[in-house]
């Protein structure tokens, strides 16, 4: 598996790549992961790690970490250098150290798509199946966030389509993303839907939201919670605008727990808004308590992103049994997932977003009803055990078919 993001990154793609690798190892496969040094979500080297090549065995998985560029600001040029340096160092590792290991299947996780040609080359030399798992259509997401100008975007889109079409197998995380990948892959094998999962502990009776609230030193009132990466793609500026619009309502607190490029902007706004509170990203083992603390969850996305990325945090939001207020247009993947267990408003529409938050804050019965449906949906669609078993079955089938 080639995955830029991996453990111990607490959120984003890393935990899911880790989950895949460890589950496959638990089923008796020899699994080797080449990943980057941990840096996400704050784009800073994680404590205890260095920008160097390293080897370790982690829960039955052989992990090789490689250094890569970390931009001071993750803009277009900075991200390009970031992805290219990772791909270059992955290539070095494969050329130096694979004589004792001939894989039957090579998985490339996107992002970063720039490392995908390296995965294809390694698989072809070993006669292995090539598998691309798309967590994020990064080209379109970059366009939506303004990181890629028109001519560059068109070139990047052609590269993306070319790469996807070259893989034997492709998977991604939502029905709309499956449909897009199938269009790009052409008439070859169908694309598998392999979702990210909700953590089993979320929504359990052991969760203690009151203890978390006290730990975070939050004032009384209902809590509208956002937890995760603080960046453009997430559209967190909408939360600031909604908090400003509703600061006359003292019984509702907006709580943002996260790290990332927009953290400074949120901290500056929180200094002047009594109903807005910025707190650090919480460790993953405290996630059940954090989500249980909320009365409702906030899931803003910028316009154009709702079919390119299905936020992994949604699974845990639903599993917590709390309703979600999301920004997405009708017919998108995100709207489909939230319908019946939350409220959707148009992307970028502060007034509609604030109205939806206020509607849920003012109606305890609606919160309970939507929350029950959210928990039920998480059980049906986002079970960790079932989703990991499906992934392993699909991969084992691909390996078996290769040998026929």
TrEMBL record:
<dbReference type="GO" id="GO:0016758">
    <property type="term" value="F:hexosyltransferase activity"/>
</dbReference>
<keyword id="KW-0808">Transferase</keyword>
<feature type="domain" description="Glycosyltransferase subfamily 4-like N-terminal">
    <location>
        <begin position="12"/>
        <end position="197"/>
    </location>
</feature>
<dbReference type="Pfam" id="PF13692">
    <property type="entry name" value="Glyco_trans_1_4"/>
</dbReference>
<protein>
    <submittedName>
        <fullName>Putative glycosyl transferase in colanic acid biosynthesis</fullName>
    </submittedName>
</protein>
<dbReference type="InterPro" id="IPR028098">
    <property type="entry name" value="Glyco_trans_4-like_N"/>
</dbReference>
<dbReference type="Pfam" id="PF13579">
    <property type="entry name" value="Glyco_trans_4_4"/>
</dbReference>
<dbReference type="InterPro" id="IPR050194">
    <property type="entry name" value="Glycosyltransferase_grp1"/>
</dbReference>
């Amino acid at each position: 598996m080639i995955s830029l993001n991996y453990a111990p990154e607490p959120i984003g793609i890393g935990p899911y790549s880790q989950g895949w690798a460890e589950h496959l190892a638990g089923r008796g496969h020899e699994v080797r992961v080449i990943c980057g040094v941990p840096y996400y979500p704050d784009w800073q080297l994680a404590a205890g790690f260095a920008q160097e090549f390293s080897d370790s065995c982690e829960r039955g998985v052989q992990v090789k970490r490689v250094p890569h560029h970390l931009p001071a600001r993750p803009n277009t040029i900075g991200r390009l250098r970031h992805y290219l340096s990772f791909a270059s160092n992955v290539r070095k590792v494969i050329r130096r150290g694979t004589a004792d290991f001939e894989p039957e299947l090579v998985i490339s996780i996107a992002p970063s798509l720039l490392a995908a040609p390296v995965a294809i080359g390694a698989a072809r030399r070993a006669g292995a199946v090539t598998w691309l798992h798309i967590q994020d259509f990064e080209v379109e997401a970059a366009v939506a966030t303004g990181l890629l100008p028109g001519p560059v975007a068109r070139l990047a889109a052609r590269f993306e389509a070319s790469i996807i079409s070259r893989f034997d197998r492709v998977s991604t995380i939502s029905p709309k993303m499956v449909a897009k990948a199938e269009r790009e892959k052409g008439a070859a094998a169908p694309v598998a839907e392999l979702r990210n999962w909700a953590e089993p502990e979320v929504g359990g009776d052991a969760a203690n939201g009151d203890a978390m609230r006290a730990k975070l030193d939050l004032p009384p009132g209902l809590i509208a919670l956002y937890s995760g990466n603080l960046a453009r793609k997430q559209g967190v500026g909408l939360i600031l605008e909604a908090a400003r619009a509703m600061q006359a309502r003292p019984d509702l607190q907006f709580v943002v727990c996260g790290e990332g490029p927009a953290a400074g902007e949120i901290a500056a706004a929180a200094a002047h808004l009594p109903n807005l509170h910025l707190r650090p990203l919480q460790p993953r083992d405290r996630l059940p308590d954090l989500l249980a603390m909320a009365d409702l969850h906030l899931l803003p996305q910028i316009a154009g992103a709702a079919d390119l990325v299905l936020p992994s945090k949604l699974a845990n939001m639903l599993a917590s049994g709390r309703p979600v207020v999301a920004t997405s247009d009708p017919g998108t993947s995100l709207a489909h997932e939230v319908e019946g267990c939350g409220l959707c408003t148009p992307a970028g529409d502060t007034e509609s977003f604030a109205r939806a938050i206020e509607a849920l804050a003012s109606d305890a019965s609606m919160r309970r009803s939507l929350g029950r449906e959210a928990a039920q949906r998480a059980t049906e669609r986002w079970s960790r055990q079932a989703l990991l078993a499906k992934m392993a079955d699909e991969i084992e089938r691909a390996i078996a078919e290769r040998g026929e």
